[in-house]
């Protein structure tokens, strides 16, 4: 099984390929221009190999575009992929989960419902007040 390609590597490679083709340069031209093989350029473009920052800058300069485009492509890939990947819980979230886990089952269920109401709401404050009115007075607040 092939290892999964990093979204940043794929995005940077796609940007390199797009710009190389627009400049009407071959893989061999680019490889020769920056001192790597055409196979290596091909691997960079496919995202199979991670391109070192200095090499990426040299590639951009040789092809004739600003290396900032590569950084923008990488940042965009990270922003997109971060939403797709679940994040590890913070230490604070883990500590809270451990405390909640020590509560009786009924109280855990009530807390779960409260959290769901907050998360499902486009306006967390109004739903929180609604949950408090529906039998959780400890959550009431003056506003």
UniProtKB/TrEMBL annotation:
GO terms for molecular function: DNA binding. InterPro entries: Cro/C1-type_HTH, Lambda_DNA-bd_dom_sf. It comes from Aureimonas phyllosphaerae. It comes from the Bacteria. Pfam families: HTH_31. This is Transcriptional regulator with XRE-family HTH domain. Residues 16-70 form the HTH cro/C1-type domain.
């Amino acid at each position: 099984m092939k290892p999964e390609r990093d979204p940043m590597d794929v995005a940077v490679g796609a940007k390199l390929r797009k710009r190389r083709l627009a400049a009407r340069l071959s893989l061999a031209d680019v490889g020769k221009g920056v001192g790597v093989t055409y196979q290596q350029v091909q691997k960079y473009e496919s995202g199979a190999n991670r391109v070192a920052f200095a090499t990426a800058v040299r590639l951009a300069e040789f092809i004739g575009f600003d290396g900032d485009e590569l950084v923008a492509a990488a940042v965009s890939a990270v922003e997109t992929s971060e939403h797709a990947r679940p994040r590890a819980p913070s230490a604070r979230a883990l500590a809270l989960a451990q405390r909640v886990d020590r509560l009786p089952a009924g109280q855990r269920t009530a807390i779960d419902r409260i959290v769901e109401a907050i998360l499902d709401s486009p306006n967390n404050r109004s739903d929180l007040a609604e949950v408090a009115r529906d039998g959780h007075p400890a959550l009431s607040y003056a506003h």
